[in-house]
Amino acid sequence: MAALGWLTPRRRSATARSVLAGEAAAEAARKTSQELDHLEAARAADPAAPESAQPTEPAFPVPGDTQAAAFFDLDNTVMQGAAIFHFGRGLYKRKFFERQELARFAWQQAWFRLAGVEDPEHMQDARESALSIVKGHKVSELMTIGEEIYDEYMAERIWPGTRALAQAHLDAGQKVWLVTAAPVETATIIARRLGLTGALGTVAESHDGVYTGRLVGEPLHGPAKAEAVRALAAAEGLDLTRCAAYSDSHNDIPMLSLVGHPYAINPDAKLRKYAREREWRLRDYRTGRKAAKVGIPAAAGVGALAGGTAAALALHRRRH
């Protein structure tokens, strides 16, 4: 952490835990990105991004601008639904928790998505439950499982349009990072599979390769995402006014506001209004109007009910 202590001045809206979470995510992202460098050749030959889906603005991204980078939110921006839901489906399949606990959590999370309300108590329950799931497990074990879960539930849910936007930055010689509240291990797997540079995600503490059940700071959400991007930009020598950021959620306005090229992708109602008022670029790859109104893809409700990391498991343990 000491290596990132020379960050540029930050807004006071970020708490100390947000700053710590952001710095931890940035440090973890830089380490993991080094492991992905060998994929550049394969990425250049990737046929998955059709030319017709590329951004229409000819001057952006600017080829060869190495002081620019792109930061992509994950849930409902790059992937249909939430990564943590799909990861939870895989853990449930592998007997990490019971059906009753899965259903309770899935319903709570579906309500949270539809209502768009971030209740602090619910957020605390979700944080503690996710940590209780992984406590005592080896990091390597969860990474192996995460690879399998990506193939089972996530690969087919990547938005082609958003992937094409990311590919445009890569083709311009720029680095592309995921920025998500999902665990950094899960985010890193997704970034590697998509040929991206790396990922900033929530960092769970581990000791000797085993999860302790504690976080470093707090979940990488809201202001913490902005802190992570700020920290990574400082460490990488990036000019944020030349960078781009992409998200579906108004919760990411702090991150979007940091860069010179903010995009609202599949935006929720609040972000759509905010983006239009500021003439930000918008992209919507969903088909259902209802989905456009509530800010989730049409299939996300099904995914939410079908999956999750079972925060209810922690509640169940505390109550019994």
Q: What would you say this structure looks like, in words?
A:
This protein has 320 residues and is α/β, with parallel strands linked by helices. Helices cover 48% and strands 13% of the residues. It has a 6-stranded parallel β-sheet with strand order 3-2-1-6-7-8, sandwiched between helices. Strands 4-5 form a two-stranded antiparallel sheet. Strand 2 (175-183), helix 8 (184-193) and strand 3 form a beta-alpha-beta unit. Helix 5 (120-134) crosses helix 14. Mean pLDDT is 76; it is low at 1-12, 47-58 and 289-320.
Key features of this structure:
320 residues; alpha/beta; 6-stranded parallel sheet; 14 helices; 8 strands; disordered N terminus
Topology record:
Elements: H1 16-34, H2 40-44, E1 69-73, H3 83-93, H4 99-115, H5 120-134, H6 139-154, H7 160-171, E2 175-183, H8 184-193, E3 198-202, E4 204-207, E5 210-215, H9 223-236, E6 244-247, H10 253-256, E7 261-265, H11 269-277, E8 281-283, H12 289-294, H13 300-306, H14 311-319
Parallel strand pairs: 1-2, 1-6, 2-3, 6-7, 7-8
Antiparallel strand pairs: 4-5
